[in-house]
Amino acid sequence: MIKPRPWLPLPLLSILLLVVWLMMARSMAPGHILLGGVLALVIPLLTYRFWDAQPHVKNPGKLLHYVLRVLGDIIIANLHVAWLIINPRQRMQPAFVEYPLMLEERFTITILASTISLTPGTVSANVRLDGKSLLIHTLDMEDEETLITTIRERYERPLKEIYEC
Amino acid sequence: MNFYVFLEGVISFFLIAGGTFAFIGSLGMTLLKDFYMRLHGPTKSTTLGIGCILIGSIFYFSTTQGQPVIQELLITLFLFITAPVSAHLLAKTGLHLKLEHVQKTRGKPVELHDDEVGVKPVLHPDRGH
């Protein structure tokens, strides 16, 4: 892990910016590496005040596992929602669910909320100001307990292991 | 030659699947009953639809140009970052404006209670309102 310095406040963001720049330019010419490098240094310096402190990734292997799992779930959720939309005898049971959060850091809560929006028929609607619970709207819910347990075991616990522990 | 025919089939499959999913996602905008349910169409089905089209595009341009083209992955990245955020903001706005939801929706979030801090003044019968 690279340590943050005064001229490099967000090392991960800098690396990401450089990689994205090179992918967009589709070349590895020295000029592009130089330009991308300058941007990767300047943009974090201008914007680091707006960023929350990013928690340390404690377990990169688990993070990869998590990303793959979410990608798989996105496909399943998509098929599910598509089926719900075109099924003529649709009996959807929409619901608002209060989800008690176990995570504490704002960054990880953001990741969890995004994951919930992308996956199983749910959209995260509101984060309470105290950061203790999340309001979720689901398109089709059978049982509140099941939904909360699923999210907790499938997404929140791995996230907690990856970042907070 | 056979390989290219096979590849064409694969690319066509992804394009058609992508188009279908994007269409179903948009169809949801008309078929679903209330604002909160309509939010689900664009966040989910459309994501998969665009994902399929991008995979097709990666295959096609990687073959025709003879070198791997991975710019499409960037589109996916941006999409996965922006789609949940915009959905969240829309949902939040809907709650703030207290938009109606269908009767069978279970759960009563405090945001939709009338006596929450909002435009309307809070009525207190015991204080002579």
Secondary-structure element series of chain A: HHHEHEEH
Overall number of domains of chain A: 2
Total beta strand runs of chain A: 3
Radius of gyration of chain B: 22 Å
Structural class of the helices, strands and pairings of chain A? mainly alpha
Uncertain segments of chain B: 116-122
What oligomeric state best describes the polypeptide chains here? heterodimer
Protein name (chain B): Multisubunit potassium/proton antiporter PhaG subunit
GO molecular function, one term (chain B): sodium:proton antiporter activity
Pfam family, one (chain B): PhaG_MnhG_YufB
Keywords (chain B): Membrane, Transmembrane, Transmembrane helix
What can you see in these coordinates?
The complex is a heterodimer of chains A (165) and B (129). Chain A is mainly α and 165 residues long. Chain A is 57% helix and 11% strand. Chain A has 5 helices and 3 strands. Chain A has a 3-stranded antiparallel beta sheet. In chain A, helix 1 packs antiparallel against helix 2 and helix 4 packs across helix 5 (144-164). The longest helix of chain A is centred in the middle third of the chain and has 27 residues, at 60-86. The mean pLDDT of chain A is 76. Chain B has 129 residues and is an all-alpha fold. Helices cover 67% and strands 0% of the residues of chain B. Chain B has 4 helices and no strands. Chain B has helices spanning 2-31, 35-38, 40-65, 71-96. The longest helix of chain B is centred in the N-terminal third of the chain and has 30 residues, at 2-31. Mean pLDDT of chain B is 75; it is low at 116-122. At the A-B interface, helix 1, helix 3, strand 1, helix 4 and strand 2 of A face helix 1, helix 3 and helix 4 of B. Chain A: Keywords: Cell membrane, Membrane, Transmembrane, Transmembrane helix. Chain A: It is a multi-pass membrane protein. Chain A: It comes from Halomonas ventosae. Chain A: This is Multisubunit potassium/proton antiporter PhaE subunit.
